[in-house]
Design goal:
The structure holds four protein chains of four kinds. By secondary structure, chain A is mainly α. Chain A contains nine helices and no strands. By secondary structure, chain B is an alpha/beta fold.
């Protein structure tokens, strides 16, 4: 990964996952509950990182369709855990905005009718630190 | 003063690419004792060895240092080469500049420096080497095979047919192992028991083979050629000599009808009686009483089997018995089991009876199995319509739920299962979720292709994420189809998991007893991955079958034969050369304190009142004496000896210290 | 003492023993010397008092194979050493007649010197019985000190008043322990690495390599010791920078590890006053901590901790850094 | 003090490896091309039980900065019990060195099987780093501490 901006490396660093471990079994995509919503499938996330195409990832719908249900993280037999890559891509988007992190009091205003419960729960689970 | 020749090997570019071989030669030329130094492309080649032999003669060399690959690889080669030229083989030392230097370092300058230091250490050692003579020890001409599966059976038969007595120790009541549980075998679809049973019978009837069934190895002592093994014959509660195998006891056992005791042989899918043989073709055909479940042993009442046995062979008082036997060689053929699937919740194995392992499927498809060979669902006894196979369950895993290796047999047996199902019941739909289909083997890929081309088995590339049992008793399988880029949800009536294989649970215990090395996955390690695949690094221990690594039946049988040949080669010798690197006691320093004997694992040290005569001494003292036939050269005594009287030939204190000095110079 | 002397005379006269190993008067009242007596006449010089600290068990090695029995006077702590020598087959129990002599602690003349007592001509109150003070008759007049103030350091951590092995016991013994045996070791263990090093640097730099510690040690009783061994390059040489010279104390301590009974002779005889027992005692403490309590010489049948093991022994990395978190 | 061109301290490390497990593990590290620093020099001994504390002291006296002893895993000793004795001997020696004020970590025991090439390499890398952080061995050169 010798891309100029090293975003792929940053994704690996943030996620703590090593995409080279992947054996392309597809168990992540097989486990994913929002598979049909995703333009880039969970297993493809791994190859996008390997191919240094982070631009497509951060622009994808998929990055924000992931529910964070952890099924792929739980079941990945190779410890690649694509869910963490998806998550890292989201974090990259956030960090590159350069803005402040969201304040707790801003959250209620952002919640729409169609925000899945699970997303909220998993966001708390993930960002409580 | 030694006259040492140093030979530095290029090993093609293996060494020369990172170590400046010429420079090493120039720098070691001036070391103490070195009278000749040279390099060559392949030192171990015939021409290289010729060069060494010529130099020995021409320069009257008294010692050799070969800077090359690991001594574990070619020490024996160069020792033999020295012996051919008339030099004592123990005057040869190897500096390992390949595995320990060129292969792991990148910087040429640093690697060259290190190679020179390693050479210096070896030179310093050779300066202190003394010629050693190999001793001899007799060989017990009997072999032990641990494990009575196809690997153990084949090894035992091959050894026995060469004329040597063999004992098989099998912990189950019958030999036969995993292969006896299989229905058909790939890639020809022979019936497993049809090809195994004759071999089992041959073993039973062979005059050179003795079977210790329902027995376990308890203790192993001794060394190559002279192992002493304690075998525990577990109490069978049946007199083996009197039993005729009529089977009355099994059919009449009241517990047989209750269906409460799961049959291990049928992987818990069927039941058995408390007095039982695992299967009809058992060898020996003598039942055992399962004391944990037997009513007589639990309550003291019943005794039906003893009353009905026509030959009066039921013996409730029987005790475990320890048999001690001597062997020249031991073969480990402890085989495998499949992993526990408790950690794979997503496949619902523990919650749904219709999710089964492949080994369970073997029993379900077997005519002698719990369903009489009809493929039926365990939940409702109905024939399934849609069957899904999931590959690589626990194989090729990087996490702690599974195993990191490929189990090797699953791709082929799944193709076999798929084909057999389609053949018997063409109306069933068979789908296989695979990651890769691995079919390296003679007629293997053709076999797998038949499953697709002739039987139209639906192979989908992608792993299954989840198996969801439904209220109506069916299952929904959610998996990936990576080639079509789809997530699939399909209905299934039965799901078959290709669970990873793992070595038998007892492998580690047995390896410890044998002091044989074992890897992190509990497979026994071979002496050399490529060149000595059926030998353990521990002399006299040989490996057969799955205990060494995943393999199928043809491979197991070939390896079993190979192990047998190695055993025969050992037993054919009347005497073995013993390692001359044994401990030696300096009587002037020995206090006779017994410390060394306390740590000697071989009982090789005894004490004798010895007349000690020398400068200023002339008296009889208690002095340690080493039996060189028993001493294996571990050196435990040398570091336990308080006064330093014990020393180890070939690895003496001064030799090691001189190596330390050379490295730290 | 008279009772003891009479008994020794009797043993020699009736031929029970051929010789006696005990102490005789030295050139000063405070330095009786170990001695071997073969006749009743020689026994005239026999002495046993508070200054008879020397552990005589090592001398039994030389007489192990002599004709006739040898009587030896052993204090309770000396019997541990004797037992250890039995275990190592260095002494002949059959050939020994062990008289367990009473002991109420042995005295250290350095303690008197440190208290400023000089010019000693005679000493009173150092007999093996009695409770009173010790009186020094000096050219400057009489000086008195409490018996307990004069005790050797090792007696403050006395192993007990019981003899581990004996044929008969003469005289009363007293357990003089009044502090924990491992206090000094613990004190050092609590220091920082640099402090420890500075401490030992200071102590060991005093060493003049006189070999007194080695020669007196009943555990290091080798015919030809590791320090006479040419096979480690560890033999003594004139060259003061040899390996042996530099590593002497650690080699010595390891040499007797698991066999040292903590008799304290090494520290008692060191002319430079180096607390050499602190090395041995550290090993003893570690052995107790790591492998369970073990007292060398208590039971001649017991397996030495260094020639024994359990499957669950602690790993070397757990042996260090225990003071840290 | 030996330095490389970047003026980093390059410690001298002596590794005693038993012939049956660890030496073979080192060979496997080699054939798997798993690199570790050049300053590790391996001495082959038949068994970790062969390692006399004298050898370790000798190495330090001659200028080694770290000494590591590698043997078969407990229970797997080729000679059944050698590593158990080594384990006790080294535990006592290491504790004594610590007691004398020698920095912790200059000595290490690691059990490494013939199949653990990766572990061998990892261990050596870690050990080198540790010794580099401790710096040159000055204390254990001369226990009389006369210089």
């Amino acid at each position: 990964m010798s891309h100029a901006d090293n975003r792929a490396e940053r994704i690996c660093e943030i996620s703590g996952s090593n995409p080279y471990m992947c054996m392309k079994c597809g168990k992540c995509s097989a486990s994913c509950p929002s598979y049909n919503e995703m333009d880039i499938k969970p297993h493809q996330f791994v190859s996008y990182v390997l191919n240094d195409d982070i631009e497509s990832l951060v622009k994808s719908k998929a990055a924000f369709k992931c529910l964070g249900c952890f099924a792929c993280i739980e079941r990945c037999p190779r410890n690649v855990q694509p869910g963490k890559l998806v998550d890292a891509a989201r974090q990259i988007v956030e960090r590159e905005k350069g803005g402040d992190y969201i304040q707790p009091e801003e959250i209620p205003a952002l919640l729409g009718e169609d925000v899945p419960q699970q997303l909220l729960v998993s966001a708390f689970r993930r960002y409580r630190r | 003063m030694q006259r040492i020749g140093v030979f530095v090997c290029h090993c093609g570019s293996n060494i020369a690419a990172t170590v400046d071989v010429k420079k090493v030669v120039e720098l070691v030329r001036y070391e103490q004792g070195v009278v000749y130094a040279d390099d060559y492309m392949y030192m171990c080649s015939e021409a290289g060895q010729q060069k060494v032999m010529e130099a020995i003669k021409e320069h009257n060399l008294t010692g050799l240092v070969i800077c090359s690959c690991s001594p574990r690889m070619h020490e024996a080669t160069f020792r033999a080469c020295a012996a051919k030229a008339g030099l004592n083989p123990f005057m040869v030392e190897i500096a390992n500049i390949r595995e320990h230097c060129s292969w792991i370092h990148k910087d040429m300058e640093e690697a060259t420096k290190k190679a020179v230091i390693l050479a210096r250490a070896a030179i310093a050692k050779v300066n202190l080497n003394t010629p050693l003579q190999e001793g001899e020890s007799p060989v017990v001409k009997r072999a032990l095979v641990i494990g009575g599966g196809i690997a153990g059976i084949q090894t035992a038969l091959d050894i026995a047919n060469a004329g040597y007595p063999v004992d098989i120790v099998e912990k189950e009541p019958s030999i036969g192992g995993r292969m006896s549980q299989l229905d058909k075998t790939f890639p020809t679809l022979d019936c497993s028991s049809c090809i195994l049973t004759p071999k089992m019978v041959e073993v039973a009837q062979h005059p050179n083979i003795k079977i210790y069934s329902y027995s376990e190895v308890e203790k192993v002592g001794g060394f190559v050629g002279n192992f002493e093994v304690d075998i525990r014959k577990k109490a069978r509660s049946v007199n083996e000599d009197k039993c005729t195998g009529c089977g009355v006891c099994q059919t009449k056992c009241p517990l047989g009808k209750t269906g409460k005791i799961p049959s291990e042989f049928n992987r818990g899918l069927g039941t058995r009686s408390a007095i039982y043989t695992p299967f009809a073709q058992a060898v020996p055909n003598v039942p055992v009483i399962d004391r944990e479940n037997c009513t007589y042993f639990k309550t003291g009442k019943c005794g039906v089997c003893a009353k009905l046995c026509p030959s009066g062979c039921i013996d409730y008082e029987q005790q475990d018995q320890i048999v001690t036997e001597k062997y020249g060689a031991i073969v480990v053929a402890t085989g495998f089991d499949i992993i526990n699937l408790d950690k794979y919740d997503e496949y619902a194995y523990n919650t749904c009876p219709d999710v089964i392992t492949s080994l369970e499927l073997e029993r379900l498809m077997n005519a002698a199995g719990p369903t009489g060979g009809h493929l039926l669902r365990m939940s409702d006894g109905k024939a399934p319509k849609d069957i899904v196979f999931i590959q690589c369950v626990g194989s090729r895993c990087a996490d702690d739920r599974g195993k990191p290796y490929c189990s090797k047999v699953c791709c082929m047996y799944t193709a076999k299962h798929a084909m057999l199902i389609k053949d018997h019941w063409p109306e069933m739909n068979v789908t296989v979720f695979y990651i890769d289909v691995r079919t390296p083997g003679k007629n293997f890929d053709e076999f797998y292709r038949r499953a697709v081309e002739q039987y139209h088995v639906n192979y989908i590339k992608g792993q299954v994420g989840k198996v969801m049992p439904q209220a109506d008793g069916s299952l929904i399988v959610q998996g990936s189809d990576l080639l079509d880029g789809k997530q699939i949800k399909m209905k299934a009536d039965m799901v078959v998991l290709a669970a990873a294989v793992e070595p038998n649970k007892d492998a580690r215990k047995i390896a410890s007893m044998l002091t044989a090395s074992i890897d992190n996955n509990d497979f026994l390690t071979e002496a050399h991955a490529k060149l000595r695949p059926v030998e353990s690094p521990t002399a006299g221990i040989f490996l057969s079958g799955m205990s060494q690594g995943p393999k199928d039946i043809p491979e197991t049988v070939s390896q079993a034969g190979a192990a047998a040949v190695k055993v025969i080669g050992l037993l054919a010798k009347d005497k073995l050369k013993t390692n001359p690197c044994t401990a030696k006691c300096d009587m002037f320093q020995c206090n006779g304190c017994s410390t060394c004997a306390n740590v000697c694992p071989y009982g090789a040290i005894s004490y004798e009142d010895t007349l000690v005569r020398g400068p200023g001494v002339n008296e009889t003292r208690r002095i340690a004496k080493v039996n060189t036939a028993l001493c294996q050269g571990c050196g435990a005594c040398t570091s336990a000896c308080p006064s330093g009287a014990m020393d180890l030939q070939g690895f003496s204190n001064l030799q090691i210290i001189s190596e330390v000095d050379a490295i730290c110079r | 003492m008279q009772e003891l002397k009479n008994r020794l005379i009797q043993l020699i006269s009736d031929g029970t023993v051929a010789r006696v190993i005990g102490w005789k008067k030295g050139d000063m009242p405070y330095n009786p010397e170990p001695a071997c007596f073969s006749t009743v006449e020689e026994l005239e010089d026999f002495v046993y008092d508070g200054f008879c600290g020397a552990n005589l068990s090592k001398m039994m090695i030389e007489v192990a194979n002599l004709e006739g029995k040898t009587a030896v006077c052993l204090k309770p702590c000396d019997t541990y050493s004797f037992n250890q020598l039995i275990r190592e087959h260095r002494v002949n129990r059959e050939n020994a007649y062990i008289i367990g002599v009473g002991c109420r602690g042995k005295l250290d003349i350095e303690k008197a010197r440190k208290a400023g007592i000089k010019g000693i001509e005679a000493i009173e109150g150092v007999g093996i019985e009695g409770e009173g003070d010790v009186t020094f008759k000096t050219i400057y007049g009489d000086k008195a000190m409490a018996y307990s103030e004069l005790l050797l350091d090792r007696c403050h951590v006395c192993k007990g008043k019981d003899h581990m092995v004996y044929d008969e016991v003469i005289g009363e013994s007293k357990d003089t322990a009044d502090s924990d045996r491992f206090d000094d070791v613990k004190k050092i263990e609590a220091m920082s690495s640099a402090e420890k090093f500075a401490y030992f640097q200071n102590e060991l730099s005093k060493c003049i390599r006189c070999n007194a510690c080695r020669n007196v040690c009943p555990a290091c009783s080798c015919r030809k010791c590791v320090f006479d061994n040419t096979k480690f390059d560890s033999q003594q040489r004139a060259n003061v920078d040899s390996f042996e010279e530099k590593m002497f104390h650690i080699i010595r301590a390891f040499h007797v590890a698991g066999r040292c009974t903590d008799c304290g002779e090494c520290s008692r005889v060191c002319p430079q006053g180096i607390p050499l027992h602190l090395f041995n005692r550290k090993f003893i403490k570690d052995i107790d901590d790591f492998y369970g309590e073990f007292q060398a010489g208590k039971d001649p049948e017991a397996q030495s901790p260094l020639t024994d093991f359990t499957f669950e022994d602690l790993e070397p990395k757990q042996a260090v850094g225990r003071g840290e978190n | 003090m030996p330095m490389n061109e970047n003026n980093e301290f390059k410690p001298l490390i002596v590794a005693f490896c038993c012939n049956w497990c660890s030496y073979a593990g080192a060979d496997l590290a080699g054939s798997s091309r798993l690199t570790y620093p050049e300053n590790v020099k391996i001495i082959r001994v038949p068994c970790s039980g062969r390692v006399n504390p004298m050898f370790i002291l000798r190495a330090f006296e001659r200028g080694a900065d770290g000494v590591i002893i590698c043997g078969c895993h407990p229970g797997d000793c080729h000679y059944s019990t050698g590593n158990y004795y080594a384990r006790r001997r080294m535990a006592l020696l290491f504790s004594m060195l610590e007691y004398m004020g020698i920095e912790n970590g200059r000595t290490r025991v690691e059990w490494c099987s013939a199949a653990e090439g990766a572990k061998f390499s990892k261990t050596m890398n870690e050990f080198c780093e540790k010794i580099a952080s401790l710096g040159e061995n000055v204390r254990l050169g001369d226990l009389r501490c006369k210089n």
